[in-house]
Write a structure and sequence with these properties.
With 211 residues, this protein is an alpha+beta fold. It is built from five helices and eight strands.
Length: 211
């Protein structure tokens, strides 16, 4: 499944690129995710999602490849449920370009997922992705605003050092059910209307037959 998203961050291209290379600071902006270890271009982490009353936790790993000239980065991600048979893998490409105000970030995700979340189709997954990206962009904007330009150049080496010797906190689950609900409701409108129409027709035919 291929998903495309984009958003704008309030920073010039160079500052935004420096920030995106610092996974130790960017990862906490992703809803439902925590970064456990960071060693050069390799990392491990956890993601927790919730669908209604059901919670699913994933543990996984990934690598990042950067193209400084193109201002692009490629993440190869894979993970599995800690209590279940579900798996998830993704290739995420983020490309940064100059925007009229700030920097435009285009994200393309090639996603392969099994288990319970796989029941959602492309439409629902796109809607869920939109909401997650919006939250991610909002948190990045807050990070840029609070940290100031001087903090954008923190190195990934420094981020790795801050992770050593401590366990990252348990991630707060992102509610996929809440994100998918509007789409599910829209999908239910047509079948519900058809069912209501059928009931009305049947009742009308019954009244006519009694006459």
């Amino acid at each position: 499944m291929q998903l495309d998203h984009s958003f704008t961050v309030p920073a010039d291209l160079d500052d935004a690129w420096k920030l995106f290379q610092d996974l130790g600071r960017v990862a906490p902006c992703m809803p439902g995710a925590v970064l456990d270890t960071l060693d050069g271009d390799s990392f491990t982490g956890r993601v927790k999602v919730k669908v209604g009353a059901v919670q699913m936790s994933y543990r996984g790993e990934g690598t990042v490849t950067r193209d400084d000239a193109a201002r692009s980065m490629l993440l190869d991600l894979s993970g599995s449920e800690t209590r279940g048979a579900g798996t998830a893998s993704a290739t995420v490409t983020a490309t940064l370009t100059v925007a009229p105000v700030g920097t435009r970030v285009r994200v393309r995700t090639d996603l392969d997922i099994t288990g319970r979340p796989a029941q959602f189709g492309r439409g629902i997954m796109t809607e869920v992705g939109d909401r997650i990206v919006q939250q991610f962009a909002t948190r990045l904007e807050e990070l840029l605003r609070d940290a100031g330009p001087a903090a954008h150049a923190v190195s990934t080496t420094g981020a790795a050092e801050t992770l050593q010797g401590r366990l990252a906190p348990e991630p707060e689950a992102i509610d996929l059910g809440a994100a998918a609900l509007p789409v599910l409701l829209r999908k239910a409108v047509a079948p519900a209307a058809a069912a209501l129409f059928a009931v009305v027709v049947i009742q009308a035919l019954r009244r006519r037959s009694r006459r």
